[in-house]
Amino acid sequence: EAQVTQNPRYLITVTGKKLTVTCSQNMNHEYMSWYRQDPGLGLRQIYYSMNVEVTDKGDVPEGYKVSRKEKRNFPLILESPSPNQTSLYFCASSFELVGNEQFFGPGTRLTVL
Amino acid sequence: GENVEQHPSTLSVQEGDSAVIKCTYSDSASNYFPWYKQELGKRPQLIIDIRSNVGEKKDQRIAVTLNKTAKHFSLHITETQPEDSAVYFCAASPPGYSTLTFGKGTMLLVSP
Question: CB-side exposure of B26: number of CA atoms within 13 Å?
Fold first, then answer.
């Protein structure tokens, strides 16, 4: 089944404790992206990757890191999480670029205390 | 960068009525405009999209119109049904299709 998976789905952590949210897709998509969703703010792009070893900042990259060592995986790293990073995070992928349908993962609800 | 404004933030209609959601964008070079639907507790899913060389696109009860001169585009849903209740997001992408900027969303409530 074609899909985008994220882990964990739910995470409660404390300020400053490094964490990684994994994202994997099995559709051989070149483009992958991370978004955060906050009430009243919609979806905001954090980072994106147009292919292996090619990543770039979206609209809200501060406090996040990403890597794209393999085509199928695009982990999101929070080196020192803060409460303002409490949010719902979505990973998405698409064939080539965003001009094609973005397939979203199920989301990761992160709470930073 | 691109800025997308979406209105209204909430929209309540009776089953069978039409619903219209409007978005404006700031970057005149943007040329791809998708609409995503997000049901409660679910992930966003593409429902329709339009490119700048097209003025209107329809898919059954859903249509999108684009006015490049005015830099706005709209989602039209006819004969609404309770299962249309969801949050709808518009988005815009500049040439190169490297990024996607979303509006803040519209919660559509369709009452039986």
Answer: 8
Q: Which residue has the tokens 């199928």?
A: A72
CA distance A82 to chain B (A): 23
Beta bridge partners, A71, equal: none
CB neighbour burial string for A91-112, b if at least 16 within 10 angstroms, e if fewer: bbbbeebbbbebbbbebbebeb
Taking 70 as the threshold, does the pLDDT of residue A98 lie above it? no
Measured between CB atoms, which of A42, A99, A101 is closest to B104?
A42
Q: Do A59 and B101 touch (CB under 8 A)?
A: yes
- B67-84 pLDDT, tens digit each: 999 999 999 999 999 999
* Pick from A101, A62, A78: nearest CA to B45: A101
